[in-house]
Structures are given as C-alpha cells and as structure tokens.
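Example 3.
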Amino acid sequence: MNILTAEQFANEMKDPSFTMNNEQALDHTVLEIIKHVRKDGDDALIRYTEKFDRAKLNSLTVSEDEFKEARELVDPAFLPALKQAKENIESFHNAQKEQSWFMNKEPGIMLGQKVTPLDKVGVYIPGGKAAYPSSVLMDVIPAKIAGVKKIVITTPPQPNGKVNPYVLVAAEEVGVHTIYKVGGAQAIAALAYGTETIEKVAKIVGPGNAYVARAKKWVYGDVAIDMIAGPSEICVVADETAPPNYVAADLLSQAEHDESASAICIATSNTLAEQIKLEIEKQTATLERKEIIEQSINQHGKIIVASDLTEAFTIVNEIAPEHLQLMIKNASDNVQFIENAGAIFLGNYSPEPLGDYFAGPNHTLPTNGTAKFASPLGVYDFIKKSSIISYSKDAIQDAADQIITIANVEGLTAHANSIRIRKDEPNA
Amino acid sequence: MNILTAEQFANEMKDPSFTMNNEQALDHTVLEIIKHVRKDGDDALIRYTEKFDRAKLNSLTVSEDEFKEARELVDPAFLPALKQAKENIESFHNAQKEQSWFMNKEPGIMLGQKVTPLDKVGVYIPGGKAAYPSSVLMDVIPAKIAGVKKIVITTPPQPNGKVNPYVLVAAEEVGVHTIYKVGGAQAIAALAYGTETIEKVAKIVGPGNAYVARAKKWVYGDVAIDMIAGPSEICVVADETAPPNYVAADLLSQAEHDESASAICIATSNTLAEQIKLEIEKQTATLERKEIIEQSINQHGKIIVASDLTEAFTIVNEIAPEHLQLMIKNASDNVQFIENAGAIFLGNYSPEPLGDYFAGPNHTLPTNGTAKFASPLGVYDFIKKSSIISYSKDAIQDAADQIITIANVEGLTAHANSIRIRKDEPNA
C-alpha cells in the first residue's frame, strides 16, 4: 500500500492513462457475438453457452424442478437473512416512487407529466464460481416497486447446466420465475433484440464482466441500460477518530472483489496512514482471498495524506468514488461538502458491506468517476415520463402570435401554419 | 400519403429494416475526429471548423461585441415572445425539482438520498442555415433550475465566423455567456474530453445531426449524454371530431423538419383518412418548405385506418412516438391508455408546435421508439443522487450475523470480516 501526499496524487490524476478507456480491444469479439445472436437466435445462445460456459443445454429456461431443488440446497440461515435484506431494500426504495402530476396555470391550460413503468426489464446476474443473490434483490426490487410487469433474469449456467441455487432462491423470493441460462455478451444481445425463447426488453440492468459491459455499450440506444459498470471502488476518509483496524478491514473488503478493484484511503495524518498500512498488512495475511487482495492493493490501493478535511473532500469530489466512507468526527455534518459519490457511509459503524447486502439503498452504483453525473440504481430507472399539454381554443388563440413569431424565426413556416390555421379558421 | 389498414401496418413493423441502425458507416469519420480533438485540442477544432463550416476563426469564443450586435439584428417581436416562452418553460420545469430526503427507520439507523446538481454541462445547438433559439431555452432552463453552476453552449458558426443572432439573444436571456463556435463531432469531443479553451463537462445535451448523434454514442460513458436523437416524429390519433385541415397542418409541421421526419396519422374511419389525405395535398402546395415536406410524406408519411380507439392505442404504444396528438372526443380521459409517447397533446387546440416553442414542457423528447424507456429532458437530467447510510454501533451489531451470512454465501469473506471486526472488537 503506497502512502502519498495530496500533491503526488493530483499529479497521478493528471496522467491520462488514469481514465483511458482500453476496452476497444473487446469490440471485435463482442460485435461478432451480437451479430450471431441477432441472426441465429436461440441456436447462437446454445452454441455460445457450450463454448464459454462449457454447458450443453436442452432448454434455455430454468425449470420448476430446478427452483424446488434450489430451496433444498441453500444454507438454512440464508433465507431469514435474505428476507430481512429484502424488507430493508423495499422500505428504502418505496420512498423513491414518483407520481404523475398536472398543473392548471391558467383557465384553459393544463400541463403535466405522466409516469409510466417500463413494460419489460431484463436483469443480468453474473455467474461463474460466485453467487450473487444480493444483485437479484437490488436489481429486481426497484423494478417491481416501479410497477414493471415483466421481469426476467439471465445468468450463465455452471458446466453441469445448473444455475446457482442462491440466485434461484433469491429470484423466487422477489417474484421472478423466468430465468434464462445465458451469460456474457450473448445474453445482452438476446435481451436487446430478442430470440425465439427470450423476448426483447425495454431495459437491461445488472453487473457483469468486461464483455457484458462492452455489449451493453453497443446495444445502448436500441434498448436502455442502467450503466456501464467498471471495477468496484472504495474511498475512506479517516481522521484521528477512525479505528485503523476498521479502516483496513473496509479497504480490504473492496480489494477482494477482483484484481482491478481500487481501495483508496485519505488520512488526515501521516501517523494514521502508517497505522492503517500496518493493519492492512496484518489483516491481509488472515484473509481467504489474499492473492486477489494483494494484487488489487499493490496495483490500485493507496493512502493519501491530506493536510485537512477540506483538502480531503476536494480529492473525494475529484475521484467521485463509487463508495465513500466518512470515518471522521461529525460525519453527517460534512455530507454537505460531498458533491460526487455513489453512496456515502457515515461514521465508524457503517462499513461498505452493510450497503452491499442489507441496509436498503441500492448497491448498483456509478463507478470510475461517473458519480460526477450518474446516480445509484433506483425506482426512477424503471419508469419513464410523458409530458401532457392541453390548451383550449381561447388559450391557443391568445398565444398564437407569439408562437408564430418564434416559428418564423426558426424558418419553420409549416409550424407557423399549424398555429395560424387555428386562429384563422377557429370553427373548422 | 399512403393509407393502410392496421394489419398492413403491423406487417410493416415486423420488417426489421424498420428499426435497423444504419449509422455504423459514420463511425470511421466520427472516431477520426474524436481522436484528433483529443490529441490536438483547439488546433483540431479550428481546422475542422474551417473544413466543415468554411469559417476561419481567430477565437473559438463568442465575444461581448458579438452579443451586443446580435441584440440589434433580431426582429423586435422576437424578444417578448422569447420572454413569455421562457416564463412558461420555467414554470413547468420548476415542478420537476427534487429534494434530498432521509428516513429514520429505527433508532440508530439513518438512510437517505442526497440530490446534487451536475457541476458542468455543455449544450449543443445546431447551426447551419437554421436558427434554434428554442433549443437554447429548452436545454438551458432545466439545467439552471437544477442548480448547474457552469453551462456552456457550442454551435457551428456561419462561414463569416458569426453565430446566429437569435441563438445569442436566447443564450443571453437565459444567462449563458460562454458560447463556443464549434459544431459537429468535434464539438462533442471537445466537451467530452476538454481542450485548451473548452473545459470538459459532466454531461452533453442538445440536438444535432447524424455526426453529432454518433459522436454522442461514442463518448457516452466517459461523459453523460441526454439521448441519441433521431429524426422527428408525430403521430396523430383522429376520430370524427378532428378537423381534417388541423390534422393535416400538424402532420405537415413535422414533415418540414427534414426528409427523414415521419408523420403518421391513425384515423378511425376510411372517410376521415381520405379527407386528411386531400387536405395534406392541398396545404402542401402552399407551404414554403414544400420539397422537404413532399419527400418526408412520400417516404415516411402514412395514414393508418384503425377499427376503433383500442386498436389505435395499441398501434401508438407499439410506435412509441416522440409527439402524440389525441384529436378525439374526451382526449384527457384516454391518456390512461397511452403507455409510450414522449409528449401527449390533447384535443383539437393543442398542436405540436405549441409544445416546440411555448407551452412549457420540454421539446427534447425521445425519438425512434425510445419513448418505451426514455423521458423528455427535464430537471432530473441535471442532478444526480448519492445514497446515505448511517448505522450506530448497536444497529450494526444487531444486523451483523445476517450480513455475514449473505457475505459468506457470496464467497466474499473480507466483506464478512469488515462486519465481524465491529462485532468482535466493538471498542476499537
């Protein structure tokens, strides 16, 4: 773990390689997959699943029997924990519901905004060795609360053709019964354009590897997507009130995600930085995923020593981290200074894994500096709005001359004609 | 103008060429431009502006003198109309403001969502022969209401190096004083990555031609964009209460935008369809932009005869039009059946140009079927949210076992460690 000054870090941020997008190398493969799925439909999906997941499928769909089997395979302690997490996530996301509204500015004029849920949503859940039941909750619950009628999940099968039982149990718990055994760019293509088995959706959400992310960029526009997610990140701002062992544990929890995950600490003193560094070394040795953690910490981990909190917050806003922990005195009083962060965790007892699984706010968060313009996944991602405009005959006649003036300025005389005809031929 | 049955139209929709994305041919040029702007900065902008806009620039920025000059060049009737439009747009968009909020579910637990305006926004305004002061209002006002501190405009200059005076006056009226004389993909690249003169922004909004749209797709992810806009569309649902001359005028107002604009009418009887068709022919002959209109109507215009309103609404929801006019009895009672449309205009006196310029709702709307998942531009496009999570020591200890269970199921044991350390070493 490198310790650097704020100035050294600022110089590092200036290096364009810090944010350079190197994913164009994937394009050849990803575009080839999308093309074949659009052309061959299910056949292409079955072929790619055999090639990439080493699973020979007879059916792309998880069966009722497989759902039943999954219930018997999971740890008995899992279901109560899952149910509590679900309740917490529902409670938070219920507060995000939006209403249609209208206003009557003047007699004869009604304006408004109609809120309509998306019709069909596809949720991508990563597979492979790991299980992600928490992503099932985080992606499905806000869609359900928004009122989306049709929600399907795609996830890559294991080589035996089965889907992870924890994913199945979580899906059943949130009321999703349609799960397709497809992963990678091929799953994104199927959701975007449809095949014989998989219906085209309006929006694709959920995390995934680099192929999935790149495929989402390509289908974007033909279908909506949640975001293009990069590696996970944490930034912990720590002052002298932060226990170094807590700070270290939280940094390491992000580092274990994968080698490209980034864990950054901004400490207000050099002494604290050294203590945290020592704790990181001590705890790493005891952790199961030590190899991944060491690579992540060596490549992307850093402790920046800031002269004060003002400097620390400037650095935070420049990084725009996915997860931000404020382990400082009066953390909540300082939230006002944070402009860019996906989620903000306050105090010494709000570690980031609390948000990953349990507290209620969504764990799908903007990465790679995109918190400068993007938000956590929410109910607002599963609705869209339509404007409503209603003018009476009197109202349009009153406004006619001004509208015609602007239309003529823009050279759009047929626009002017559409207004003028209502003035000149009012009783048509 | 072709008249077809609902069945004939359904078959046409099945033809994949209807939605096929043909813009990949632009990629070579657009990526070349982006690469050069990233490499050469202002020099590239000046070079491309000379090449594409035939303007030799000494400065990329509109000067104070040019703003002053513009005030003297505009039609005196324009300013009052602009001011009224501005007031209407502000009034509507003020209703879209969102607040930060928090909840205390239980003692020791605080969750919330912080709303923060974007820091810097770039607005693209098309240039060429036409002027688009209305786009200045529609793109800048919601950003201002959201609280965006830095808003800049880029627009291609005329060959004499000047920017259209109506654009300048509108910009000044909404408080934007930084206008760059750059258009096309080069403007999008400059806003996305920055040059010596143009600062990198968090989000790019505004309409543009095919190069602009494609460049926006490419920079998406490095920067936020509003949408990838396609040609303009109108869909008018007309029953026997709709005056055929009004319907025709409104269809033609969309057709004049450009040859690829689409004007579709869904009529509830064949007689009405014939009357509208006749009116279209009659009015087209009298319109200034007759040539564009004829091409648009011949290539993309159609009148679909539906057997009843239920069938008409099914077709509307399938098309998901940018603009929808309901020129039917009890229009407002039928809004409930519309799921997919950018803006919905009710009755015989709410023609689409009213929304383009004046009524208040935004005229930047989802095109090309994207109203199935996208919304009009709004204040919500210029803010982003951060989740807030705060647990007390007691609260995290109560939840610890359940969080650890889920973390272990996902195989993320360092996550479990970050929770466990707060349980086992509570007084660290």
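Chain A has three domains: 23-225, 230-373, 392-424. Residues 392-424 of chain A form one domain.
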